[in-house]
Amino acid sequence: MTAVAVHSSDAVLIAAVFLACAVEMVEALTIVIAVGTTRSWRSAFEGVGAALLALAALVVLLGPALVRIPISDLRLIVGGILLIFGLGWLRKAILRAAGLKAKHDEDAIFAETVAELEAMADKPDRDHLAFVMAFKGVFLEGLEVVITVLTLGASAHRLGLAAETAAVALLVVGIAGALVAKQLSGVPENAMKMGVGLMLVSFGTFWVGEGLKIRWPGGDAIILLFVALYAVVAWLLVRSLVATELSPVRSAAR
Amino acid sequence: MGSSEPPSWPLRALQGFGRFFYDFLIGDTPELFVGTLAALGVVALLSVVEGWNALAAATLPLLVIAMLVGTVLRARRSAPSPNQRA
Asked: How much is the ipTM here?
């Protein structure tokens, strides 16, 4: 493929991995900060460390296995997973943008976690609850990061680039979180989720096609066309949902 | 007290991992899982027919759009009314 097409595919890969990792990091950080400020920073950090070790072990186990799968099979499987995952993100982002679903509110999650933790009065030096909550928060959000990085990176034969991008995203959000030392409610999470959803679905379409030996016109540059096409459909869906919600017929019917 | 032993931690970890992947791939949107499998099947059939590459290439994104519209409309039907949301 031409150099321009390769660059366009890399750019979408970087954007998808960066945004996905940043969104997950914001969610994990909200939980860790809530745990640290209300219970014990020491136990929260131990939970984070244990979760990172468990994720690293998963990468060591899954990474080499992924590389051994024939590339067309890998692309078909990964493409299918990305389609399911990406359509799920896009669905939520569209419903939130149209006001049919509550926006992911980091302030509310922070307050909820703090209230839950404060209700449990005793705070020993080594806090088991703080450890478990921090571990679960980081492990579950991190698992999505690992899956995104491994699947996108392995399918594109750009595992190094995907891992570096993820590291930068985690570092940027981590530093921002440490500086403000509070939940990152100012991050436009729904817009980021919409962007990630569009890119995951576009990559999914492309990899499924590649796995099925479809010859895409324009090679991997068609990913950009998919992003634009799905963005238009998402925008039309949001507009149509908003219009339907505001229509007197639907309101009266309810 | 119950007589059954609680599952060991490797079993619990495995169960948790299985639950995560169930939620990850199916969760509350089984239509996306089923739709994606169906779309893969249709496009796989089209792609093996000689000379139908262009049709397969055009069908895949259209099926993806159909899935997106379908899942959003399904969610809208089950969304609470404005009065309930208020």
From this structure: 0.83
Q: Which region holds residue B5: left if phi is over 0, alpha if psi is between -120 and 50, else beta?
A: beta
Name the pLDDT band for A247 (thresholds 50, 70, 90).
low
Comparing alpha-carbon positions, the chain A residue that sits nearest to B67 is A87
B51 domain-assigned = yes
Residue B8 lies in a domain: no
Chain B residue numbers touching A212 (CB-CB < 8 A): 40, 43-44, 47, 56
Is the pLDDT assigned to residue A68 strictly greater than 80?
A: no
| pLDDT higher than 60, residue B71 | yes
Listed as own residue / partner, the contacts of A214-219 with beta carbons closer than 8 Å and 24 or more positions apart are A214/B43, A214/B47, A214/B53, A214/B56, A214/B57, A214/B60, A215/B53, A215/B57, A216/B57, A217/B57, A218/A5, A219/A1, A219/A2, A219/A5
pLDDT for position A182:
56
CA distances to A22, A106, A156 from A102, rounded to whole Å, are 20, 12, 35
Residues of A in contact with B50 (CB under 8 A): none
Q: Which of residues 47-66 of B touch A (CB under 8 A)?
A: 47, 53, 56-57, 60-61, 64-65
d(CA B43, CA B82): 40
Q: How many domains does chain B have?
A: 1
Nearest CA in chain A to B16: A140
Domain that holds residue B37: 26-78
Give me the pLDDT at residue A122, please: 58
Position B57 in a domain: yes
